[in-house]
Amino acid sequence: MKKAILLFIMVCFFAVSCAGVTGGIHKKSVSSASIEKVEFKPDKKGNYYVYVTIKNISGKDKPFYLELQADDQVSQFTASGKKGQPNIVPAGKDYTFAVNTWRKIEPKKLKVEIKESLR
């Protein structure tokens, strides 16, 4: 009887500890860029935008790409420039991606990945 109660308590603690792992912001970046800040802000229509600020730490001017997945939506890709064009981010400078999540609530899970190419 004591073993069953102890096992039940251990399973409950395990379930509670694993529950927190699935949510939140999961960030991944290449070695030439660092993710400085991730923010959520709604627009006038109520759609939440994600603002991801990166810093080019490579020492070279180069474009970067962002892969974003909010909750269980399909991944979105964009480049460091207006209208998704791959413009150069100067060495040592910051760039902020602004991506519409098409959600009326702030995403509970967010995957943010910075890449040097779309491959």
Summary keywords:
119 residues, four-stranded mixed beta sheet, alpha+beta
Describe the structure.
The protein has 119 residues and is an alpha+beta fold. It has one helix at residues 2-19, and strands spanning 24-28, 33-42, 48-56, 65-70, 76-79, 94-100, 109-115. Strand 2 (33-42) and strand 3 form a beta hairpin.
At a glance:
The chain is an alpha+beta fold.
* Helical coverage, percent range: 10-25%
**Low-pLDDT residue spans:** none
Order of helices and strands: HEEEEEEE
Largest beta sheet: strand ordering: 1-7-4-5
CATH class: Mainly Beta
Put simply, the count of helices is 1
CATH topology, which one? Immunoglobulin-like
Strand content: 35-45%
Overall CATH architecture: Sandwich
Form type: extended
What is the radius of gyration computed over CA atoms, rounded to a whole number of angstroms?
19 Å
Total individual domains? 1
Layout: helices, strands, pairs:
Blueprint: H1 2-19, E1 24-28, E2 33-42, E3 48-56, E4 65-70, E5 76-79, E6 94-100, E7 109-115
Parallel strand pairs: 1-7
Antiparallel strand pairs: 2-3, 3-6, 4-5, 4-7
